[in-house]
Amino acid sequence: MLLKQKSIVEGALALLVTCARYADLARHAESETERHRAQFLLDMLTPVAKSFPAERGFESNALAVQVHGGYGYTSEYLPETWLR
To answer: Which residues neighbour 58 within 8 Å (Cβ) at sequence distance 6 or greater?
Structure first.
């Protein structure tokens, strides 16, 4: 479960960093063709970068509650708060 959580978080971060790279290239690339290509890729990846962390983040939080066992459902631990 912990490795699945790690893969969700690192995948989301990699996707967001890729979008940031394309946003930078869309503004500061040397050639006009490269700027248009980066803007196109940014336009394609932005909806994915917004929805993937939101949907899979909930799954990761649900796994965090399961990792804590019965204590994960009590309000004394943070995973319960994150899941709410």
So the answer is: 83
Q: Is 23 exposed, middle or buried (0-12, 13-18, 19+ CB in 10 A)?
A: middle
In which band, very low, low, confident or very high, does the pLDDT at 61 lie, cut at 50, 70 and 90?
A: confident
What is the predicted pLDDT for the residue at 43? 98
Q: Do 66 and 72 form a contact (C-beta atoms < 8 A)?
A: yes
| Residue 38 predicted with pLDDT over 90 | yes
SS3 content of the chain, % helix, strand, coil (to 5): 90, 0, 10
Residues 6+ apart with CB under 8 A from 52: 11, 12, 15
Domain ranges for the chain? 2-83
